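Figure 3 (text version): structure tokens given as input.
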């Protein structure tokens, strides 16, 4: 549950009026609720307390150092997918010994860096990668802890661009080939230590069924690997979905009573614990979206209204460079005016940005309050794959980020200046 709600006719993040944030820092600005992140983290930890479970936050979902520091201070580990993310984690005070390093294309530089930092485990995706890590570990006089990502071939019922656990995807190694691969590692790669096994079936999964199916399917294999190679952990990945359509309302317990089908951290844990507990392994959880998605909004301003032949457009000062999810994989975000409107004051419109691309929309054919130019809007559930995927496309400086804690707000990323935007470019003489 999140801490965004209307109070006295104005949308608040915890106790801070979003109008105050816009007045202080301008728009577009990402506004995070510290207590939303922390209460969800606690809920997840509590739900998995009956087993030896550890959380590794997926940094790619939300990589601001202030957010990473918040999590690191609570003993959370991190799931990283690049040397850059590992560097960020360490900078924020995170412990590399609690980091798993996933991804299909680790470079030599990245592998050497992660090895020298002493990460918990490399999550490998091919035999070629295992051989490369073995070679580099040998050169460095080291032993690299490894696990292999197993592809369970389970349909996660999510968008095709964020499904990762089927035979059509580039991720993981087919379950049928895992035992042979582990034996090859044990026999031929002396600078690797088989520490665990991993799966990650996709993202924005809103029901428990695909997780249950995948865990049931792989549990016998995991048991065999434990017996044969003494592995100590099974990472079951991330992927738990958030509420996008219904986000604002889901800040109240009432909403959850009326939506029993929606996955919760509790239902996720309750469905999986009976399957995981008998294995006697350390279980790693790699949530990204679920811990940060509903914990932020992107604050933006309506610049113009344009009535076309067939459509009404609300043009805002944030574009696909700020949030690319709608353009990239048809991501859905609720859009609410910061100043509350009467329930009957609505219009069907497209909410679009200033970018020169037809794909630059945040909502299409959406029934929403009839906001006027100059009004502030909050694009909800923007905390995951929001700022972390942003760019300066169209030469638009990166947005600001603000962290709210009760009645206090703190800038955690200054808005980029034009000079900063081009500072790495070199103008030839
Ligand atoms: C992206 C990713 C995650 C996080 O996925 P969410 O849907 O954000 O929870 C976890 N593990 C791996 C390996 C990933 O690539």
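Below: residues designed for each position.
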């Amino acid at each position: 549950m999140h801490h965004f709600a209307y109070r006295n006719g104005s949308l608040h993040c915890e106790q801070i009026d979003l109008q105050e944030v816009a007045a202080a820092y301008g728009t577009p600005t990402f506004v995070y609720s510290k207590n939303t992140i922390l209460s969800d983290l606690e809920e997840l930890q509590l739900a998995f307390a009956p087993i030896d479970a550890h959380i590794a936050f997926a940094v790619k979902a939300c990589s601001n150092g202030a957010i990473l520091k918040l999590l690191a201070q609570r003993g959370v580990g991190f799931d990283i997918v690049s040397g850059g993310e590992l560097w960020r984690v360490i900078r924020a005070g995170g412990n590399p010994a609690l980091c798993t390093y996933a991804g299909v294309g680790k470079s030599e530089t990245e592998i050497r860096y992660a090895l020298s930092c002493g990460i918990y485990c490399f999550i490998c995706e091919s035999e070629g990668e295992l051989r490369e890590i073995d070679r580099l570990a040998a050169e460095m006089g080291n032993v690299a802890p490894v696990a292999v990502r197993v592809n369970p071939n389970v349909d996660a019922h999510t968008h095709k661009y964020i499904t990762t656990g089927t035979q059509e995807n580039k991720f993981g190694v087919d379950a049928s080939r895992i035992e042979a691969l582990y034996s090859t590692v044990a026999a031929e790669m002396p600078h690797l230590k088989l520490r665990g096994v991993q799966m990650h079936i996709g993202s924005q999964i809103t029901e428990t069924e695909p997780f249950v199916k995948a865990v049931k399917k792989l549990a016998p294999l995991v048991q065999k690997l434990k017996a044969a190679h003494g592995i100590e952990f099974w990472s079951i990945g991330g992927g738990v979905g958030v509420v996008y359509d219904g986000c604002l309302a889901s800040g109240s317990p009432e909403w959850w009573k009326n939506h029993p089908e929606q996955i919760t951290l509790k239902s996720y844990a309750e469905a999986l614990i009976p399957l995981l507990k008998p294995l006697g392994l350390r279980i790693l959880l790699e949530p990204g979206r679920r811990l940060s998605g509903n914990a932020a909004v992107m604050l933006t301003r309506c610049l113009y209204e344009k009535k076309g032949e067939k459509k009404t457009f609300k043009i805002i000062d944030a574009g696909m460079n700020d949030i690319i999810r709608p353009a990239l994989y048809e991501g859905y975000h609720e859009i609410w005016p910061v100043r509350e409107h009467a329930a009957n004051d609505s219009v069907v419109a497209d909410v679009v940005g200033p970018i020169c691309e037809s794909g630059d929309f945040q909502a299409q054919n959406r029934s929403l309050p009839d906001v006027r130019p100059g009004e502030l809007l909050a694009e909800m559930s923007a905390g995951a794959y929001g700022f972390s995927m942003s760019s300066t496309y169209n030469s638009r400086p990166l947005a600001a980020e603000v962290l709210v804690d009760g009645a206090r707000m703190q800038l955690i990323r200054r808005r980029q200046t034009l000079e900063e935007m081009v500072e790495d470019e070199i103008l030839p003489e």
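The chain has two domains: 4-29+294-417, 48-287.
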